[in-house]
Every structure is written in structure tokens, then in C-alpha cells.
Amino acid sequence: MAVVKLLGTWFSPYGHRVIWALKLKGILYEYIEEDVRNKSPSLLQYNPIHKQVPVLVHGGKPICESTVILQYIDEIWPQNPLLPADPYDRAVALFWIKFADDKGLLMSKLYRGNGEEQQAAVKEWLEMLEVMEEHALIGVKKFFGGDEINMVDIAFSFVAHWLGILEDVLGLEIFKPHKFPRVSSWIQNFKSSPIIKDNLPDADKMSTFLKRGREMMLTSKSN
Ligand SMILES: N[C@@H](CCC(=O)N[C@@H](CSSC[C@H](NC(=O)CC[C@H](N)C(=O)O)C(=O)NCC(=O)O)C(=O)NCC(=O)O)C(=O)O
Ligand SMILES: O=C1O[C@H]([C@@H](O)CO)C(O)=C1O
């Protein structure tokens, strides 16, 4: 069996997508922690274009971009499928995964913004939550794919875990559960499901880390 390695960084929402996918499939892998502020030669060699984690290395061959990696994992290890088999259901799932990928940058916008920039990011977050509430989650029971977690849940995980941490870091309340009851129950289902719950990065640790990072950013901006 070809060796499976994952280059990730502990706070990355994208790296966690791959960790969960591998664990949901029951695949053993070697995890290699990267410092994205001081990238290893392997990371630069495996992902010379974006120089980002995650990178999955399967039998020595690198695969980059979390969504591409998850599709690859689903093809190589078909057990516990991450995408629906029905072509229409699959297209709908891929639509929402693309939507989530396009909105992922809202994390950085919120975290790195100030004043008007931050307000614009909050507005975009609220618009996205509204779309999840009124479109993506209509008719959804426990998870996007039914009773089991699939790739759409994984793609939206930044809403389930990272948004709350960013709110804490910035002292903002963006997600009001009573305004988004469907999103709220999906978050609870997602975060309490076994493999996800056991492999979420620690919220307090991340909050401390991101607060420190933000102080450093603010100091360097004002100098
Ligand atoms: N589209 C990729 C995104 C992967 C990614 O963003 N990885 C981050 C760690 S997650 S952290 C989330 C990430 N932010 C950053 O990477 C901040 C980069 C800044 N230059 C810094 O070093 O602090 C982000 O917003 N990403 C959205 C995007 O790129 O579309 C990384 O390796 N960064 C190193 C670098 O860029 O130099 C995927 O899905 O795999
Ligand atoms: O460096 C970053 O960390 C956060 C987020 O990814 C938390 O994990 C973010 O948006 C960045 O740009």
C-alpha cells in the first residue's frame, strides 16, 4: 500500500478538511506539521504554485487544494462516500462546495480587516449565513447528505468552528442562533459527530494564537 502523508498546520480549516476525510474513510496517514510562516523545503517542492497547506502526498505524489484532495480521496478510497452517486445530487453538492470555497476568504477578511473593511466583512458573513439558512439547508435533516457527513458539511466547517473563534478574537457577535436556526442545528450536529468532535483544533489555543497574531498585525500597521 502506498504511503499517505499529509502536510498541514494545526489551525487550518483547509487542512482539517483532509484530516476528517481520511479519518472518515479509516485511512492511516502520517501527519507532518508545517509552520506556514517558515515553510519547509518539502512544502515548497510539493506546492510550488500556492505554497500552501494542505498537501496530500500519496505514494510520493503530491495533490494540492483541499477540495481537489477530497475528491481524490473519495475516488481512491470509495468506502463511506463523501459525494452522492446520483449525478444531480452530486452536481448540487459540488455547487455548495464551490460556494463554500469562494466564501472561505471571508475568514481572512474578517480577521485582517479594521473599521469599514471589517464592517464590510461582517455584512458579507451575514449574507452568506442567510444563503445557508434560506437555501443550502432547506430540507436538510442532520447533515447535507442525510444521516452521514459528506463533503458539503466538511466544506462549510469554517462556519461551524472557525467563525465562533474569530468572533471571540475580535469581540464581535455575528452569528445569532435564533436568526439562523437551521445553521445553528447543523453546527450542533456537525460538531458533535464523533470523528469531527475528536479532531477539531482547540478553540482556546487558536483564539490565543489569533489574538496575538492580530496584535502583531495592528502594531505593524500603525508604525
Ligand atoms: N484554497 C486552499 C487554501 C489553503 C490555505 O489557505 N492554506 C493556508 C493555511 S490555512 S489559513 C487561511 C488562509 N490565510 C492565509 O493563508 C494567510 C496568509 C498570510 N500571508 C499569512 O501568512 O498570515 C486563507 O485565507 N486562505 C484562503 C485562500 O487562500 O483562498 C496556507 O497554507 N497559507 C500559507 C500562505 O498563504 O502563505 C485549499 O483549499 O487548500
Ligand atoms: O492566518 C489566518 O488565520 C485565520 C483563520 O484561518 C483561522 O484558522 C485567517 O483567516 C487567516 O488569514
UniProtKB/TrEMBL annotation:
One GO BP on record is: glutathione metabolic process
EC number in record: 1.20.4.2, 1.8.5.1, 2.5.1.18
UniProt-listed CDD domains? GST_C_Tau, GST_N_Tau
InterPro entries per the record?
Glutathione-S-Trfase_C-like, Glutathione-S-Trfase_C_sf, Glutathione_S-Trfase, Glutathione_S-Trfase_N, GST_C, GST_C_Tau, GST_omega, Omega/Tau-like
Pfam families listed in its UniProt record? GST_C (PF00043), GST_N (PF02798)
Subcellular location(s) of the protein: Cytoplasm, Cytosol
The record places domain GST N-terminal at: 2-81
Swiss-Prot/TrEMBL catalytic activity: L-dehydroascorbate + 2 glutathione = glutathione disulfide + L-ascorbate; RX + glutathione = an S-substituted glutathione + a halide anion + H(+); methylarsonate + 2 glutathione + H(+) = methylarsonous acid + glutathione disulfide + H2O
This protein's UniProt keywords: Cytoplasm, Detoxification, Oxidoreductase, Transferase
The GO molecular function terms of this record are:
glutathione dehydrogenase (ascorbate) activity; glutathione transferase activity; methylarsonate reductase activity
A single cellular component GO annotation: cytosol
> Where does the record place the GST C-terminal domain?
86-209
Sorted alphabetically, which PANTHER family does this protein's record hold? Answer: GLUTATHIONE S-TRANSFERASE, GST, SUPERFAMILY, GST DOMAIN CONTAINING (PTHR11260), GLUTATHIONE TRANSFERASE (PTHR11260:SF679)
Q: Which family does it belong to?
A: Belongs to the GST superfamily. Tau family.
UniProt name for this protein? Glutathione-dependent dehydroascorbate reductase
Lineage per the UniProt record = Eukaryota, Viridiplantae, Streptophyta, Embryophyta, Tracheophyta
Gene transcribed to yield this protein: LOC107927646
